[in-house]
């Protein structure tokens, strides 16, 4: 083959190589040309072609550690670990002090679950590595700890890696998972703030900082970190998604939509994102626009259960219960264990007059998520609505075994009023006000007339906090 120059067309080079390769007469090829060919095939995910080019290279340069190393690398990332080790062992004969070969060996051994041998190589390599190579060794150690479920050790290894090389992408990415699994949120804030002090435009450090604040339930600081991540790199899709979700969590739906519009066109809209956008419009009472996003999500992924559920919610808001029932059914059939979907379906049956179907589903929702008071309350409210206050009290008895909440107490008081047990209800209402005065409005939603009941008004005045 002719001598390759950096300005030459890679396509012409590849075409020439492939023609000669098919004839079985590749001829002499410079090492740099082989590397260009291998890189091209690998970038195109043509792994077999890349390995074929490496074999041609090894035939011409049988003592080159580089080609055996490259072969080992491709085999590792193809998860052909045994073959990778064979190639890397040969490479190590020609370059025994190569840190790259050691790292690849560790990855192959990890893939084979040969943890003890992998640790042995790491311990040996630590004594001769420095700088970015040493940082990479600590990343390998972190992966080993992860594979054995030792997440605190994983976190420590990544911390050492970032101390040596604060911009180590692999370490920064690994930290996201390590922090989540180890629960070292405060330490993560400290580590990533230190990195940002040195490298204020490191978007991954900002993102990890946002994740730590999210887990610490400091949503305002999380949003600030995600926004700085986007300022540093507007292509950081993870930061964008987390930022919008945090705005939604805080019910700042307009800000969430602003965030979406700021990066519109930069990322491909998937079903989850379309549903999130639709939800913002739904919460802002722009139901028509919300429905359009949910329908887009369904067209993109016909099994998007969340999109069907939210579409059902929109129909319910418009009192279109037949349409709501159809949407809830689709969500439920895709995911039968989601308590929200079960309750939505129960509500639609109830509003459509199918009381017994609703009864069974309200019970099923409470049984599916017994630790959540909302589903017990909704079941009790349903029974109150159909005139079964005693049944509602039985439900509340079951609820208090599994969960707690002042609304359960107020709901029981409403049941007592429905049963005509006024004195008992008034006594417990006073007790509930002492426990949680602000929660009393819940009972007015169940029995609006109580808001003007003289004795209720007297108790509200008596127990009103100063």
* Weakly predicted, low-confidence segments: none
**Shape category:** elongated
Can you count the helices? 27
The end-to-end distance, rounded to whole angstroms, is 91 Å
User: What about the largest sheet?
Assistant: none
**How many E-type strands?**
0
Average pLDDT metric = 93
Please provide the ordered H/E string of secondary-structure elements. HHHHHHHHHHHHHHHHHHHHHHHHHHH
Question: How much β-strand is present in the residues?
Answer: under 5%
Secondary structure: helix percent: over 70%
Structural class: mainly alpha
Rg calc: 31 Å
Summarize the structure.
This protein is mainly α. The protein is 76% helix and 0% strand.
List the helices and strands and how they pair.
Layout: H1 10-23, H2 31-43, H3 47-60, H4 65-77, H5 81-94, H6 99-111, H7 115-126, H8 131-147, H9 151-164, H10 169-182, H11 185-198, H12 203-215, H13 219-232, H14 237-249, H15 253-262, H16 271-283, H17 287-300, H18 305-317, H19 321-334, H20 339-351, H21 355-368, H22 373-385, H23 389-402, H24 406-418, H25 422-435, H26 441-446, H27 454-463
Helix pairs in contact: 2-3, 3-4, 4-5, 4-6, 5-6, 6-7, 6-8, 7-8, 8-9, 8-10, 9-10, 10-12, 11-12, 12-13, 12-14, 13-14, 14-15, 15-16, 16-17, 16-18, 17-18, 18-19, 18-20, 19-20, 20-21, 21-22, 22-23, 22-24, 23-24, 24-25, 25-27
């Amino acid at each position: 083959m002719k001598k390759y120059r950096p300005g030459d067309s890679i396509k012409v080079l590849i075409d020439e190589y492939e023609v000669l390769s098919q004839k079985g007469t590749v001829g002499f090829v410079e090492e740099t040309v082989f590397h260009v060919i291998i890189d091209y095939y690998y970038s195109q995910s043509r792994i077999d072609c890349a390995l074929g080019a490496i074999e041609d290279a090894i035939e011409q340069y049988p003592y080159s550690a580089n080609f055996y190393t490259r072969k080992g690398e491709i085999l590792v990332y193809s998860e052909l670990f045994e073959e990778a080790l064979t190639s890397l062992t040969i490479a190590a004969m020609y370059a025994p002090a190569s840190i790259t070969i050691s790292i690849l060996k560790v990855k192959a051994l990890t893939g084979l679950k040969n943890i003890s041998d992998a640790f042995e190589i790491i311990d040996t390599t630590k004594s001769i590595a420095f700088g970015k190579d040493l940082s990479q060794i600590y990343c390998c150690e972190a992966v080993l700890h992860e594979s054995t479920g030792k997440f605190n050790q994983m976190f420590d290894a990544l911390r050492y890696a970032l101390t040596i090389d604060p911009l180590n992408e692999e370490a920064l990415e690994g930290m996201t998972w390590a922090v989540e699994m180890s629960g070292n949120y405060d330490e993560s804030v400290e580590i990533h703030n230190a990195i940002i002090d040195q490298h204020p435009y490191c978007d991954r450090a900002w993102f990890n900082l946002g994740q730590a604040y999210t887990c610490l339930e400091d949503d305002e600081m999380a949003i600030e970190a995600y926004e700085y991540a986007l300022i540093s790199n507007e292509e950081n899709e993870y930061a964008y998604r987390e930022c919008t979700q945090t705005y939604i969590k805080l019910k700042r739906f307009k800000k969430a939509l602003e965030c979406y519009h700021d990066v519109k066109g930069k990322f491909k809209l998937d079903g989850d994102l379309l549903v999130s956008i639709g939800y913002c419009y739904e919460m802002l009472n722009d139901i028509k626009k919300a429905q359009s996003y949910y329908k887009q999500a369904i067209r993109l992924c016909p099994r998007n259960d969340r999109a069907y559920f939210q579409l059902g919610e929109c129909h319910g808001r418009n009192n279109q219960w037949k349409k709501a029932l159809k949407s809830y059914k689709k969500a439920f059939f895709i995911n039968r264990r989601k308590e929200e979907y079960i309750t939505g379906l129960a509500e639609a049956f109830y509003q459509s007059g199918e009381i017994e179907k609703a009864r069974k589903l309200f019970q099923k929702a409470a049984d599916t998520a017994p630790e959540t008071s909302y589903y017990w309350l909704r079941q009790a409210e349903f029974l109150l609505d159909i005139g079964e206050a005693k049944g509602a009290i039985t439900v509340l008895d079951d609820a208090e075994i599994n969960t707690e909440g002042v609304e359960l107490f107020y709901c029981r008081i409403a049941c007592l009023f429905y049963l005509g047990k006024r004195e008992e209800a008034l006594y417990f209402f006073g007790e509930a006000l002492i426990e949680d005065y602000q929660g009393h409005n819940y009972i007015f939603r169940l029995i609006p007339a109580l808001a003007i009941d003289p004795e209720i008004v007297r108790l509200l005045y008596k127990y009103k906090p100063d």
